[in-house]
Amino acid sequence: MKRYRIGIIGLGNMGSKYLKPLAASPRWEIAGACDVSREKLDWAGSVYPGIRTTSDASDLFADPSIDVVGLFTLADHRPAQIRAALEHGKHIIAEKPLASTVALEEEILPLIEKSDRLVAVNLFNRNAWYHKEIQQFIASGEIGSLAVLAVSHQTPGIMPTEGHAPEGPPFHNCGMHYVDVARWYAGSEYDRWHAQGIRMWGWKDPWWVNAHGSFKNGIVFSITQGFVYGQLARDRVIRSGLEAIGTTGVVRMWHDFHDVTIEYRGVGRTETKVGPYGGKKLDVMCDMFAASLDAGKNLGLPTARDSYVASKVSQAMLDQATRSDPPAVGTAEEMQRILAHRAQLPDRY
Hints:
The chain is α/β, with parallel strands linked by helices. The chain has helices spanning about 15-25, 40-45, 60, 80-85, 100-115, 130-140, 170-175, 175-185, 280-295, 305-325, 330-345; strands at about 5-10, 30-35, 55, 70, 90-95, 120, 145-155, 190-200, 210-215, 220-225, 240-245, 250-255, 260-265, 270-275, 330. The chain has 2 domains: about 5-115, Rossmann fold (3-Layer(aba) Sandwich), CATH 3.40.50; about 125-280 and about 300-345, 2-Layer Sandwich (Dihydrodipicolinate Reductase, domain 2), CATH 3.30.360.10.
């Protein structure tokens, strides 16, 4: 069984999280790590003794012994890094989106799709055991024909000014994951929609958005995403899950970032199942990437086109919600209270 050498570029929130599953896997050898922060490089060197560290990504691109690069910087750096990686013949694991604007994504996508390199983007829901199991239940005919998809992801998440500016407001930065989920389940492209947002705490961008509409195959959808859910609630609460309504049955799922609950209500099967949430499922993605390299083809990884479509559609929905002059509720003082509260939390989602 071949062991692949990978170079990690970007040791921020997501890049640092990849190190553990890669180091634990027999399929991977971490050949190097790159970041502009000396502190982060020192951290990587202390946690993984002997790892090669550099502040210059070209050191990793130019290394002929490296098979794969992981691009985990923010989106505004990604197009140049994708170009460099492909020019040096590297396979790519990337965070989403491919670039900081849809226009730049449209420029880089043809280069990726013309390349013979394997490129996968971390649309993490596609690696989740529970979504795959639910889709198997739907495919078995237990709920008849899939007709309605309702997706919700509402948490006390990232606030304005807390970062991720190149990825945009929540409905693009985070919501593109759920735009992707609905498209994946529907097995069709988006046809039409209406999007409505609300501007919280006097902030300029909608921090909560709902979009509803239909796919080209007639399945209808509703997607709700917002980082406004109980920001100062004494006990933290979330509303994250999916409901798939068919012509004869229904299946629904929700999670609390620890456990996943699935209710199967089919014509021949009634069951409630609880299992582990499993975080971002980075181990699943990395193992599947190695297996895909073994096979010489993509064995089910989310593609650059999947990421591009999710980014383009979520941005279009966000733009529509913004153009419709969304109402504003709340005050800047409330926002400052929330930011101060979140700064004290050990886990801020």
